[in-house]
Specification:
- It contains nine helices and five strands; from the N terminus they run αααββααβαβααβα.
- By secondary structure, the protein is α/β, with parallel strands linked by helices.
- A five-stranded mixed sheet has the order 2-1-3-4-5, with helices on both faces.
- The radius of gyration is 22 Å and the shape is globular.
Length: 217
């Protein structure tokens, strides 16, 4: 352990207390970063059914892109594996709340018992935004499995030079602490990344054709 190494250095060199504290802090920061790195590389254990449902989410995200909308797609699955509902992003309609995860939460509230909701799983191409996570939590839905994370999406926006969204990105557990969450899935995340690249370049081309008065992404 790095923290143990820092103590050995202090005792061996008989350093002054202030210097020793600085060295220990340095080693503890290194240890913390290493733990975060190790955690981020943990293997996500998913079943073939999980992967099938995530692939459907990517298909729905592709449909959204082809319809001129942002590439997000989600699927709601019952405890017995039955696909109950699915949707894609529809914010191009002019309503910025029309995220697929939000729509599925509303569908679940209207069509499922509380017990059925708690046992269900929501699969999605991208980790829930705070609005969708809150809806998921209030409705009492169960497990969430996503292909790409909010952290990855934020990095892609930076990479593409896209404007940050108006709502701060938060991990699902920061909004709904008790929900079971699994993701991201590396291979599918790359596919989602490609969809966002295609959307951004398609949008920029459309904006260029409309002229400089069109709004920025």
């Amino acid at each position: 352990m790095l923290s143990a190494a820092c103590l050995r250095v202090v005792f061996d060199l008989k350093m002054e207390l202030s210097i020793a504290i600085q060295i220990c802090r340095y080693f503890l920061r290194l240890e913390y970063r290493q733990k975060r790195s190790d955690k981020s590389q943990e293997t996500i254990m998913l079943t073939d059914t999980d992967l099938q449902n995530l692939r459907r989410c990517v298909e729905l995200a592709t449909e959204a892109l082809e319809a001129g909308d942002e590439p997000f797609g989600s699927v709601l699955v019952a405890a017995d594996g039955t696909v109950l509902a699915e949707d894609r992003n529809r914010v191009g309609s002019g309503d910025p709340t029309r995220h697929p995860e939000f729509e599925l939460a509303r569908w679940a509230a209207a069509n499922m018992t509380s017990e059925e909701r708690a046992a269900a799983t929501v699969y999605t191409s991208g980790e829930h935004c705070p609005m969708c996570a809150a809806a998921h939590g209030w409705v009492g839905l169960g497990r969430i499995v996503y292909a790409s994370s909010s952290e990855q999406l934020a990095a892609w926006f930076t990479e593409l030079g896209s404007a940050a969204p108006p709502v701060r990105a938060l991990r699902i557990q920061e909004v709904v602490p008790g929900v079971q969450v699994e993701g991201p899935v590396a291979a599918l995340a790359e596919q989602v990344h490609d969809l966002h690249q295609r959307f951004y370049h398609k949008y920029k081309q459309s904006r260029k054709e409309k002229g400089p008065d069109s709004s920025s992404l």
